[in-house]
């Protein structure tokens, strides 16, 4: 009997030691990228009251933290400057060490939003991404790009962990990376020589309200926050508020990142007034507060042309207008245009194939605004002012970088008179780098629009080849 007690005691000690060993969230693991040259947050769980010691391969400095009554601990370590070295970190609470390896110091960016951000290099069914074979065959050269996909999960309460795994880009893995995120990372790495880590926390079909916290939803919206009410109001789970913030985004909020890439909006088409832009601003403020890293960059992708039930309608155009407004009212923000990222036959394709342009334009924004490469031209031309002389409207633009891509043959312009009926217009580059717009059917024009339809493709760009952002000079409710 005594021997049996001793044996059981020994087994309990071994089992207890195994249970007590430091446990890390899945986001902290092999192949991860840590934000370079800063204080990086690390966290996990251990035996309550235990002292967790952390050792890093790039420094002799030691770090430690005490686990609280629930076994939770958190600390920060000073990360090195990115140089391509493979790093490691070990964690020890006295009951056994846990290590992570193949770690890189670099730049960490969050890929947030809905399905066009989620869309992987391998595409969705019947929705290909241009250049798949080119990317896969060249992926061995992209070993400095790592990514982690946070599972799309709903939760009524905020989750601290998610079943995920960092991957290093290779021909075998790159197909799973966000296409927009990958092309962004490839350009940033090419320009800087620095590794890039992508944290892909997104959900197809999600609304901006899907990512707002309970506090913000209660204070600024009338969204249902009871699960039964959510189901009654929203047939599709991806439209429901709060749940994706709790289940998909909350697990990453302690990770140290550089900035956020935000590609979302299709599911908010039809929102009234300035509601969408104000809620995107609220979301940017929420995420910045939760990350605790200050006003980190928040770069927005304009939703692409899509018929949205009626190609000639304007409800999608109004959402794009709201996205531009959001980029104006959110500090340290910017927007990339996508009007030329659509093939004419993609009228009903909600997932257009040209993701390389989108990702690279985001990269140019970041390289110019975040990394100081001011010689890069990163802004799309946008409406500045309009004057009318007789039957001709003259439109002035910002962000031309010295001119436009064409003198004449411009398409996408419409004009209207007091009757508010728009007609296709002729447009050309006039003296003073103004665009002259006229139409025989409109003798006394009062308003001009450019590509202000659900699906309308223009051909005007600036000297950088970046497309003119859709606009209107009126404020009419069509």
UniProtKB/TrEMBL annotation:
Keywords, in A-Z order: Hydrolase, Signal
Keyword Signal among record annotations: yes
GO biological process: carbohydrate metabolic process
PANTHER family the UniProt entry points to: SIALATE O-ACETYLESTERASE
InterPro entries: Ig-like_fold, SASA, SGNH_hydro_sf, SIAE
GO molecular function ontology, one term from the record: sialate O-acetylesterase activity
Residues of the Sialate O-acetylesterase domain: 107-364
Organism the protein comes from: Marseilla massiliensis
Any Pfam family matching the protein: SASA
Record-linked Gene3D superfamilies: Immunoglobulins, SGNH hydrolase
Keyword tRNA processing: no
Residues of the signal peptide: 1-20
Name of the featured protein: 9-O-acetylesterase
């Amino acid at each position: 009997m005594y021997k049996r007690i001793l044996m059981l005691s020994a087994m309990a000690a071994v089992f207890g030691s195994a249970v007590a060993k430091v446990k890390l969230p899945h986001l902290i693991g092999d192949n991860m990228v840590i934000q370079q040259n800063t204080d990086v947050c690390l966290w996990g769980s251990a035996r309550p009251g235990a002292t967790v010691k952390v050792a890093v391969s790039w420094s002799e400095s030691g770090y430690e933290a005490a686990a609280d009554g629930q076994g939770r601990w958190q600390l920060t370590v000073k990360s090195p400057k990115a140089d391509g070295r493979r790093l490691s970190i070990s964690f020890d609470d006295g009951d056994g060490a846990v290590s992570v390896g193949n770690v890189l110091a670099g730049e960490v960016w969050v890929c947030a939003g809905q399905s066009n951000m989620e869309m992987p290099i391998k595409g969705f069914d019947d929705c290909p991404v241009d250049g798949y074979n080119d990317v896969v065959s060249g992926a061995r050269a992209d070993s400095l790009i790592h990514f982690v996909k946070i599972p799309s999960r709903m939760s009524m309460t905020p989750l601290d962990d998610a079943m995920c795994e960092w991957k290093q880009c290779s021909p075998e893995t790159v197909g799973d990376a966000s296409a927009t995120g990958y092309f962004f990372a490839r350009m940033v790495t090419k320009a800087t020589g620095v590794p890039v880590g992508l944290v892909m926390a997104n959900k197809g079909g999600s609304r901006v309200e899907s990512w707002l916290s309970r506090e913000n939803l209660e204070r600024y919206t009338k969204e249902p926050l009871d699960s039964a009410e959510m189901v009654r109001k929203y047939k599709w789970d991806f439209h429901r508020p709060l749940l994706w913030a709790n289940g998909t985004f909350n697990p990453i909020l302690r990770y140290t990142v550089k900035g956020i890439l935000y590609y979302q909006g299709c599911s908010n088409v039809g929102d009234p007034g300035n509601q969408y832009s104000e809620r995107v601003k609220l979301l940017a403020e929420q995420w910045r507060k939760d990350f605790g890293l200050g006003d980190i960059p928040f770069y927005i992708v304009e939703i692409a042309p899509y018929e949205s039930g009626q190609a000639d309608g304007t409800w999608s155009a109004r959402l794009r207008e709201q996205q531009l407004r959001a980029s104006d009212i959110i500090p340290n923000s910017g927007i990339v245009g996508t009007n030329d990222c659509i093939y004419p036959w993609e009228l009903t394709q909600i997932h257009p194939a040209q993701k390389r342009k989108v990702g690279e334009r985001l990269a140019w924004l970041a390289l110019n605004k975040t990394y100081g490469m001011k010689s890069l031209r990163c802004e799309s031309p946008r409406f500045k002012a309009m004057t009318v002389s007789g039957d001709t409207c003259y439109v002035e633009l910002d962000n031309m970088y010295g001119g436009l891509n064409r003198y004449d043959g411009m398409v996408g312009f419409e004009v209207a008179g007091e009757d508010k009926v728009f007609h296709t217009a002729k447009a050309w580059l006039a003296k003073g780098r103004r665009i002259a717009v006229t139409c025989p059917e409109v003798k006394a024009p009062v308003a001009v629009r450019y590509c202000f339809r659900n699906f309308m493709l223009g051909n005007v760009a600036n000297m950088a080849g970046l497309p003119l952002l859709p606009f209107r000079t009126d404020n009419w409710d069509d």
